[in-house]
Design goal:
- The structure is a single chain.
- This protein starts with a helix and ends in a 17-residue tail after the last strand.
- It has one domain.
- The chain is 21% helix and 25% strand.
Length: 151
Amino acid sequence: MTRFAKSALAALISLCTPLAAPLGVMQAVHAADLPGAYSDDDGGVCGQPWVLSKITSRFSYQVKHVPHLPDVQITDFHRIHQHRYLPANETWPIGRRYCGATVNLSDGRARAIWYLIEEGQGFASIGDNVEFCVSGFDRWMVYNGSCRVLR
């Protein structure tokens, strides 16, 4: 194996290592859980710290770089829930979790937030991707009116 191939393999392994779930983090799957109709009270994957911090940092970037948006920050998440799960299968290779919550903003207002977690769609297909929409902050209508695409 060439030195370049060894270096590339070592880099790939180091990127994948932090993504492995520690023991005890995996959720149990119950027979009564129906794909597409799953909702959990504690947030499950939708309430994972990495998901919420990614949303918070991207929202901060958005309000600074999109004209005519108020300069506010997300201070807290409430009522986190998953309202739909579309598992990956042969015809649809990307698993998707549709989540919703209420966020408190630094101006004291509470807003609805809708977000989507796409399995295996992170940078270079490593990890998961998160797309989100805060009601009233989709100035360019990326997710249609009132975040309809992510609901």
